[in-house]
């Protein structure tokens, strides 16, 4: 039995894409924390934020992390803000393997432009505004993300070949 692998990083850095592929390669279960919260509460993250506010949402997120962090043989894609609240980063480092999946701000913007509908906070922004928002967001979260045990680049996750190559590179570099 292996401890959880927590993949963290900014929105659109590739956490879900890498997480699914890595879980498949390792023969483990994949968990998307945001999806699990939405299933449990039968509301979208956006709805939970609107109804309960950020502080209550972060408590929900921390309780979900508590549950998941004791599971074995799982790969977990965390929400972008998960490491930044309620000592969650220390909890993940204590109970599993943490991977900061980095992507360049430019790559993140490319992905956000393609998937605007999934990111309501970014939907109305032009590419230059997106880049400014991404740079500011990354600057604010870097102190938390940088506490991860592993730092890995997620720029090349755009198609099946790149995903397979990235997973293979990850597995050559790290034993998880």
Please describe what this structure looks like.
With 176 residues, the protein is of the alpha/beta class. The protein has one domain (5-154): P-loop containing nucleotide triphosphate hydrolases (Rossmann fold), CATH 3.40.50. Helix content is 55%, strand content 12%. The chain has seven helices and five strands; from the N terminus they run E-H-E-H-H-E-H-E-H-H-E-H. It has a five-stranded parallel beta sheet with strand order 2-3-1-4-5, sandwiched between helices. Helix 1 crosses helix 7, helix 2 (33-41) crosses helix 3 (45-69) and helix 3 runs parallel beside helix 4 (88-95). It is globular.
Concise summary:
By secondary structure, this protein is an alpha/beta fold.
Integer-rounded radius of gyration: 15 Å
Order of helices and strands: EHEHHEHEHHEH
Overall pLDDT confidence = 94
The global form is globular
By CATH, the superfamily comes out as: P-loop containing nucleotide triphosphate hydrolases
